[in-house]
Amino acid sequence: MREVDSLRPLTAGRLLTLWRESRKEAGEPAERALLCNARVLAESCRFRGEAVFPGPEAVLAELTPREMETLLRRLSGLETETSAAGENPWFDEARFARLREG
Fold it and tell me: What's the whole-model pTM score?
């Protein structure tokens, strides 16, 4: 997967436009969802301020559905880069140490 150092959120209006475009191109729901998600990621993923993917086709060619989901969850704020790596972002190491000493 290409390196992504920032995710630029899209406006609600832009998301609606991407969804409508995807709906016109793909009738099957799973295909429509993949296409729409690829469009969102193509516009949102950045590295050093530049677009990471030249278009949705590149997203679909390079990322697995799981990788796409991880990036979309980060974009929506549901997951951080750390939690994507399997670490708990709410873990308080200092509190844990105090409890162990207890």
Answer: 0.75
